[in-house]
Write a structure and sequence with these properties.
The protein has 456 residues and is of the alpha+beta class. It has two domains: 261 residues, no CATH class; 76 residues, no CATH class. Strands 1-2-3-4-5-6 form a six-stranded antiparallel sheet. The chain starts with a helix and ends with a helix. 42% of the residues are buried. Bound molecules: heme C (2 copies). One heme C binds next to helix 14 and helix 15.
Length: 456
C-alpha cells in the first residue's frame, strides 16, 4: 500500500517534469576550495594542519606527495614517515579497502617533528579523499577530510574508475577542499562517530581494532597473514609502483607495530585505548583450527566463536562492526580477475572497460563486514544492525541526525518513522538515502521488511 503510494508520487512528479537531478554529494551543503579553506581558517584551532594551510599564502597542492611534504610526511631528503597498510578496514572507507586497494596510514610522533605533534594521514584510492588526524602538544585531537578534484570531474560527474583507481589519481589535482570535524559533524563523513564514540565531552581517540600481534589484516613481513596479503598486493602492483606516496621499494617495510604504538601512546592506557579490540591471535587460531588451509587458501571461510561475539555486539548496535574473521576478505576468483585487469590497465593493454577493482570481497563477507545486514534478521533487527552505528543516544544529540534513534524504535514519532521510510526508498546515489550507500546497502526485501517495521 505504502509502496503503491510512493510509486504514484514518483509518477506524478515525473509527469509534472519535477524529476530534479539527484543530489549525490554528501557535502553539497558546504563551500568548496578557497571559500571552504577561508571558513575553516577563520575558526580553526592551532595545530600542524592549520599552520600548514592557513598561515600566509594558500599553498599549491597538486598531488598526494605534495600534500605529504607540506605536512612533513613525505619520503624525501627530510626523512621517512612510519607507515602501516591494511587490507581490510573497519573505517570510513571500509567498502573500498582490500589487498589490491589497501589503506595506507603514514604517521609521525612528536620526536619526529619540530611542532611536537602526533600526525597521521590515511589514504585509499577510489573516492579522492585523504583523511588526516593531528594531536598538538597542547590542545585537542582534530580530524580533517581533504577531497581533491582532477579536472575529469569538472562537470560534476565523478572521474572514471580507471582515473580514480590507477596511480594517476595520486597526482594531477586541479583543486581541493578541506573540511574539519565540525564541518563534517552532521554528514555521512562524520569522523567523530568512530573517533569520539562516547559522544561530546569524551576522549577523541585514534583507532586500530586489530591492535595486537599478529595484527590480522595489516600487511607486512612480521606475520604469516601480513606476508600473505603483501603477496596479493604485489601480484597487482609489482615492486616498483608508488602507492599512497610510498615508493614501491619500501612497501615491504609496512609495519603494524608503528600504528599499534601510535594508538597506545596517543590514547593512553585508559579503556579508550581501543574500545572494540579484535583479539587477533585467538581469532586466527580458531579459524585455522577448523580450516588449516587458511590464510593462504581462503576458498572455505573460517569460523571463530570469539569473532562471533564481537560481531553480535555490532548487530545489536552496541559497537563498531569488527573487521572480517579471516585474514583475506577477497573471493579468490574475483581477486584473480581484478588483479589481471589492474595489471593490464597499468600496462595499457586492457581490452574493454576497467572494472571496479574494489569489488573483490567474498559474497559472505558483505554481511560479516556489516556492509549488509546479518542474514535472517527481521525488520527491527535490520534497522538496528544497519542504522544504530550513526543513530544512537551516545553520539552528539544536537545534530539533526539524532532525531532518529535506531536503538529505541518504539519511541520514534510517526513523523520520524515516515522520514525514515522515505529515506530508505531513495535511490542509491542520493545523498539522503539511508543507510548511506557509502557505508552499506539493503536488498529490496530488506527495505520492505524495514519499512513494515517502521509502519507499525
Ligand atoms: C566507521 C568508523 C570510522 C569513521 C567514520 C572514521 N574513522 Fe578513522 N579510523 C577508523 C578505524 C577503525 C581506523 C583504524 C584503521 C582501519 O580500520 O582502517 C581508523 C583510522 C584512522 C586514521 C589512522 C590513525 C588511526 O586512528 O589509526 C586516521 C588518520 C583517520 N582514521 C582519520 C579519520 C577522519 C579524518 C575521519 C573523518 C573524515 C574518519 N577517520 C572517520 C574508523 C573510522
Ligand atoms: C554512516 C552513518 C549513518 C548510517 C549508517 C545511517 N544514517 Fe541516517 N543519517 C546520517 C546522517 C549524517 C544524517 C543527517 C544528514 C541528513 O539529513 O542526511 C542522517 C539522517 C537520517 C534521518 C533524518 C533525521 C531527521 O529527522 O532529520 C533519518 C530518518 C535517518 N537518517 C534514518 C536512517 C536509517 C533508517 C538508517 C538505517 C537503515 C540510517 N539512517 C543509517 C547518518 C547515517
Amino acid at each position: 500500500m505504502a509502496s503503491a503510494r510512493w510509486a504514484l508520487l514518483v509518477v506524478v512528479l515525473a509527469a509534472l517534469g519535477c524529476e530534479s537531478p539527484v543530489d549525490t554529494d554528501p557535502l553539497s551543503h558546504l563551500p568548496r576550495g578557497a571559500a571552504q579553506l577561508e571558513a575553516l581558517c577563520a575558526r580553526a584551532g592551532d595545530n600542524a594542519i592549520t599552520s600548514a594551510l592557513c598561515a600566509g599564502e594558500t599553498p599549491s597542492v597538486t598531488s598526494l606527495v605534495e600534500l605529504q611534504s607540506l605536512l612533513g610526511l613525505a619520503f624525501d631528503e627530510n626523512g621517512r614517515p612510519d607507515f602501516a597498510l591494511t587490507a581490510n578496514s573497519s573505517s570510513l572507507v571500509a567498502r573500498q579497502v582490500s589487498a589490491i586497494n589497501p589503506r595506507a596510514v603514514l604517521m609521525n610522533v612528536p620526536e619526529d617533528r619540530e611542532d611536537q605533534s602526533f600526525i597521521a594521514l590515511a589514504y585509499t584510492r577510489g573516492d579522492q579523499l585523504v583523511e588526516i588526524a593531528v594531536t598538538p602538544p597542547t590542545g585537542e585531537t582534530a580530524f580533517y577530510l581533504l577531497r581533491y578534484e582532477r579536472g575529469c570531474d569538472d562537470d560534476g560527474t565523478p572521474c572514471s574508475l580507471q582515473q580514480r583507481l590507477l596511480p594517476e589519481t595520486e597526482s594531477g589535482w586541479t583543486d581541493w577542499s578541506i573540511y574539519d570535524d565540525s564541518d563534517l559533524g552532521n554528514s555521512v563523513f562524520d569522523c567523530l562517530q568512530c573517533h569520539q564514540p562516547g559522544g561530546p565531552g569524551t576522549p577523541r581517540i585514534y583507532r586500530m581494532q586489530e591492535l595486537q600481534n599478529p595484527w590480522t589484516h595489516w600487511m607486512g613481513s612480521l606475520s604469516r597473514g601480513g606476508r600473505t596479503l603483501l603477496l596479493d598486493y604485489r601480484a597487482a602492483h609489482g615492486v616498483d609502483e608508488t602507492y599512497a606516496g610510498i615508493p614501491g621499494g619500501l612497501m615491504q617495510n609496512a609495519n603494524p607495530i608503528v600504528l599499534e604504538n601510535f594508538v597506545k601512546r596517543t590514547n593512553g592506557d585508559s579503556e579508550s585505548e581501543e574500545p572494540n579490540a579484535f583479539p587477533s591471535q585467538a581469532i586466527e587460531d580458531e579459524v585455522r583450527a577448523n580450516n588449516p588451509a587458511q590464510p593462504e587458501d581462503n576458498a572455505t571461510p573460517g569460523r571463530s566463536a570469539t569473532w562471533n561475539d564481537l560481531y553480535q555486539r555490532a548487530v545489536v548496535g552496541e559497537a563498531l562492526p569488527p573487521p572480517y574473521h579471516d585474514i583475506k576478505i577477497t573471493d579468490p576468483q574475483k581477486l584473480e580477475t581484478m588483479t589481471r585487469a589492474y595489471v593490464d590497465a597499468v600496462a595499457g593493454t586492457l581490452s574493454g572497460n576497467f572494472p571496479d577493482i574494489r569489488k573483490v570481497f567474498r559474497d559472505d563477507a558483505l554481511a560479516d563486514l556489516s556492509l549488509r545486514p546479518r542474514a535472517g534478521l527481521d525488520g527491527r533487527g535490520i534497522l538496528v544492525h544497519m542504522c544504530a552505528q550513526c543513530h544512537n543516544p551516545r553520539l552528539d544529540q544536537s545534530l539533526t541526525r539524532a532525531r532518529f534513534d535506531a536503538t529505541d524504535l518504539d519511541r520514534q514519532s510517526r513523523e520520524e518513522k515516515d522520514a525514515a521510510i522515505a529515506r530508505l526508498r531513495l535511490t542509491d546515489d542520493d545523498r539522503f538515502r539511508m543507510p548511506p550507500h557509502f557505508f552499506r546497502d539493503l536488498s529490496d526485501d530488506e527495505i520492505e521488511a524495514s519499512v513494515q517495521e517502521l509502519q507499525r
